[in-house]
Specification:
A hairpin with a 2-residue loop joins strand 4 and strand 5. The protein has 9 helices and 10 strands. By secondary structure, the chain is of the alpha/beta class. The strands form 2 sheets. It has a 6-stranded mixed sheet with strand order 6-7-8-3-9-10, sandwiched between helices. The protein starts with a strand and ends with a helix.
Length: 233
């Protein structure tokens, strides 16, 4: 499957409460698209719909030109979506290597961790026998990203990858994401509130407010006035 994601007219409701309203978004191969917005506007809910953890009430989702609107999360993972959830959600009692194997098995991709993952994040090779809960926040985020990468995804979806991480690790993660896009020609969709990270990494952005996209453009258009209007607390 080619690396592309297309979301059209996506709507989602919790019971009677509509949370997402008519969202359109396309991420092509070799492109990083960021969804931004204040807390509680629906960003994580949107990603959960994309990866299949929530069921949309209207609209369509296509991966590589194929309709995946009704497909469950495991089929989307097997088809090429790698998901890094907010808060990392690693297994603290499992070792680094066991965490990576869980990612492989969940996507039906066997149980042998590819060496390339340890090449991308060498610290994980050094710590592969340690429990996930013993790692620092930045190391846990590297593990969470690696757990998505072991499946060799075409589309990488990340929810707040810089949350709770020291600045030097944020910089490293940004460089690695850009390198993956360049070398593997994958598509990346991320939710992020750290504006400097978005400016350094993303090609384009969508700003969400109350479940709708209220601004979008190429990253050069993410100026201070737009940030103040839509993103400042």
């Amino acid at each position: 499957m080619s690396a592309s994601l297309e979301v059209r007219d996506l709507e989602f409701s919790y019971g009677e409460v509509q949370v997402l309203h008519g969202l359109d978004l396309v991420v092509e191969a070799g492109e990083i698209v960021c969804v931004m917005g204040r807390n509680g506007v629906g960003k994580t809910t949107f990603l959960r719909n994309v990866v299949g953890l929530e069921t949309l009430t209207k609209g369509s989702i296509s991966l590589g030109g194929k309709d995946f609107t009704s497909r469950p999360a495991n089929e989307r993972a097997a088809a090429g979506i790698g998901y890094v959830p907010q808060g990392r959600q690693i297994f603290p009692r499992l070792t680094v290597e066991e965490n990576l194997k869980v990612g492989l098995e969940a996507a039906g991709k066997g149980s042998v961790v590819p060496d390339e993952v340890y090449t991308i994040f060498p610290i994980l090779w050094e710590m592969r026998r340690r429990r996930g809960g013993d790692l620092s926040g930045g190391q846990q985020q590297q593990l969470a990203i690696s757990r998505a990468l072991v499946t060799n995804p075409n589309i990488l979806v990340l929810d707040e990858p810089t949350e709770g991480i020291q600045p030097n690790i944020i910089l490293e993660i940004g460089k690695i994401i850009r390198k993956l896009v360049t070398e593997r020609n994958i598509a990346v969709l991320l939710v992020e509130q750290y504006v400097d990270f978005v400016r350094a990494v993303a090609d384009s952005f969508h700003v969400m407010n109350r479940g709708s996209f209220v601004a979008e453009g190429v990253t050069d258009e993410l100026d201070d006035s737009l940030v103040r209007r839509h993103l400042s607390v």
